[in-house]
Every structure is written in C-alpha cells, then in structure tokens.
Amino acid sequence: MISEKMKGYVANSSVIRAMFEEGKKMAAIYGADHVYDFSLGNPNVPAPEAVKEAIKDILDNEDPLLVHGYMSNSGYEDVRGAVAEHLNGLYGTKYAAENLLMIVGAAGGMNVFFKTLLNPGDEVVTFSPFFTEYRSYVGNYDGKLVEVPTDPVTFEPDPEKLAAAVTAKTKAVIINSPNNPTGVVYSKEVIARIAELLEEKQKEFGTTIFIFSDEPYREIVYGDYEVPWLPSFYRNTVVGYSYSKSLSLPGERIGWLLFPSEIDDFSDMTAGANVANRILGFVNAPSLMQRAVARCLDEKTDVGYYAENRKMLMEGLAAAGYTFVEPQGAFYLWLKSPEADEKAFVAKAKEKQILIVPGSSFGCAGWTRVAYCVSHDTVRNSLPGFKALAEEYGLR
Ligand code: PLP
To answer: How far apart, in Å, are the Cα atoms of 211 and each of 65, 75, 95, 99, 215?
Structure first.
C-alpha cells in the first residue's frame, strides 16, 4: 500500500532511533542505571531557567490571540527582527527581519531549503561521515546526495576532493561544523579554501552553488575552538540554526534560516522558502516557542556539563587503549572500532549494556559514535565496560 519511495525510507529507517528504543527495553530489563545509552543526541542538560520564565511570562502577559494565532509563514516579524539584531551584534552584519525565516527545527529548515531549491536529479554534496537524515532530506525532493569523504585522520574536509565532486548539477554543499558525528570543528583555513574553490566552480559552470551551513551545535565548543561565520567567507551561504541543542529544546522544534541579502536570487529564494514552509505542512514555526526564544537570545546551555563528560570519556578511553578523535565541539566522540567490522564491535559493546552507533549509519564504516549528552554517572559507570571490551580486543 505505501509508496515505493516510503518503502525505501522505512527499510533504511534510522539505526539510531532503533537503538534508542532498544535502550529503553534494556533499561526495563537491567535497570536504567545499568544501561549506558550513548545512542541519541538528546541533550540531558535542562533548558535554561530563563526559557521557562519567558514562557510563563508570555502566557501571563501577552495577548493570547497573538501568542497562539497564525502569523506570516516566515514567523513573527518582531521575533525575526530580534534574531537579526542578535546576529548583527555577534558578527557585525546588517541583517533584518526579511533575512530570517523561523523554522520547525533544523530538520524542518533543511526540508524547506531543499524543497525551495531542488529539481529532480539536482546534486547536493555532503562530507562523510554526515548526519544520516541528510539522505532523506535531499531524497524527499528527488535530489541526489553526493558523499565526499573527509580526511581519515582529522575528519576535516579536503577542499580539493570537494571541487572534484562538484558538477554543473550541484546546487548546494552542506557544511556541518561542529560536526555530528565526529565532533570536529572545521578550521578557518579549510572553510576559506572551500569558499575559493566554490567561487571558481560557480564561474566555470555559470551556476549558483549554495553552502548550506547546518549549525545546531554552533555554541557547543571546547577550549579555544572557534566556529567560523560562513557568510563572511562565501556570499551564497544560507545558515540553518536550531535551538534543539543550544537551548536543549529538541522537542519544541524551533530554529531559523538566514538568507543574507547578497545571495543570488534573494527574492525568489525567500519567497520560495516562505511558501515551502507552508506547503510542507509546517505552516509556521511553533508560535509560543518563537516568542520564547526571542527573549532568550543571550542564554546559553551549560557547555561545562558536556565538557566534564568529554574529559572523563577521553581519559577512560585513552587509558583503555582506544583510538578516537578528540572532540572539539558538539557532544559526540568519534571512536575507532578495534575491528574492521564496527557493527560487530557495536554488538559486543551492547553485551556490556553500552549502546553506541555504527559509523556506517553516517556513511563511514570502521568507526562508531558515542553521544555523551548523558549524565556524569552514565559516563563514569560505562568506563569499566569499555575497559573490559578493550581487554577482549587486546588493546592494552
Ligand atoms: N543537523 C544535525 C547535524 C543534527 O545533528 C541534527 C539533530 O541531531 C539536526 C540537523 C536536526 O536538528 P533539529 O532537532 O533542530 O531538527
């Protein structure tokens, strides 16, 4: 009965979500304290108190017809204006409400962007490993996702490999930094070189190639790492931002798309995105959440909490003899499987009640993702299991 395309999606349905469900079942059997579920990027730091206060105040003091009503498909004008001003303060830009569109999380925003942009057969490039859902977001509009592997040691993109993969059909390149699943923050040098090469490719083909900067983890960085602001490197950049991780609001489905005025076809792009938001059935981003985040633009999540998990995990895994990429941002640790078949390693970890995600789910076999947005106790108590597993593999 269901469509052929949907059959494909169901067959490849997210391994991560399946694991999350499995984790809940295991918790019922072994007790939640004895299951170390590192499968899902669901923040365990609560949203800042200011979010709750803002919601309460909005409900108590703003006009309910305004708060719960329809508004422009792009979102409340005052909210978009407030976000624009906030960005101007951070990046010295001159954005206004017309540059912003409020979205139903990064997922909603990417669907709006690709619905607006893609004809069947158009190509979108992503660096592997990559957030699995990109395949569906591009496939929804019959686009073709082209995977360009990152450097096998640093997991930074290789700009020359990107240039080789760009064709006359390339409509966009997705950049996700801080990266899910590797935790890598792409350096300024790499971004600048990508920008330079994409400018050349646009000239060569006489086309527009957008960078779509997928930035739900922008503020979650460790040490001195800085996340470059991509529109200042490359004119045809559209930014997708979400409050799912930065304010721990993943269930509330709220974020924004930024279309700088300088991009090609600005009017068509923004008019298209506005309509896409409506006809995809989102209509508009959740109204209460739009109003709430506009009051919390300076709020930050407790990155220190993730930093402590990161430190504990890195020390424990290094002592046990594992190889991994030191996370620079987000809350993921990219762990090398001690055997070539990382799915077998994931299965062995599961026997120790440790749930991690195979790298093949992100287009990169031989590695696994450990999402450490969990309690300190989960990290601490998982370490003996990781150690025992390392010993079985003879890592020490
Ligand atoms: N992009 C990346 C890289 C992600 O990791 C996620 C969620 O984990 C999303 C997009 C989707 O985020 P949202 O909850 O805002 O839709």
So the answer is: 38, 23, 18, 16, 12
With beta carbons less than 8 A apart as the criterion, state whether 182 and 325 touch: yes
Per-residue pLDDT reduced to its tens digit, 86-117:
999 999 999 999 999 999 999 999 999 999 99
**Given the structure tokens 């020490």, which residue do they identify?**
396
- C-beta 105 within 6 A of ligand 1: yes
The rounded distance, in Å, linking the Cα atoms of 365 and 340 is: 8
Which pLDDT score is estimated for 14?
66
- The pLDDT of residue 340: 97
E strand or H helix at 125: strand 123-128
Cβ 157 under 6 angstroms from ligand 1:
no
Q: Are 287 and 68 in contact (CB under 8 A)?
A: yes
Residues 6+ apart with CB under 8 A from 310: 222, 327, 331, 333, 372
In the chain, which stretches have pLDDT less than 50? none
Q: Which of 245, 331, 373 to mutate to test the pocket of ligand 1 (most atoms within 8 A of CB)?
A: 245
Please report, for residues 110, 276, 292, 381, the alpha-carbon distance to residue 272 in angstroms, rounded to integers and kept in the order given: 13, 6, 26, 50
Tell me what pLDDT residue 344 has: 98
Q: Are 257 and 110 within 8 A, CB to CB?
A: no
Closest alpha carbon to 380 in 354, 349, 357:
354
CB contact at 8 A, 214 and 174: yes
Residue ranges of the alpha helices (H) in 167-259? 188-205, 243-246
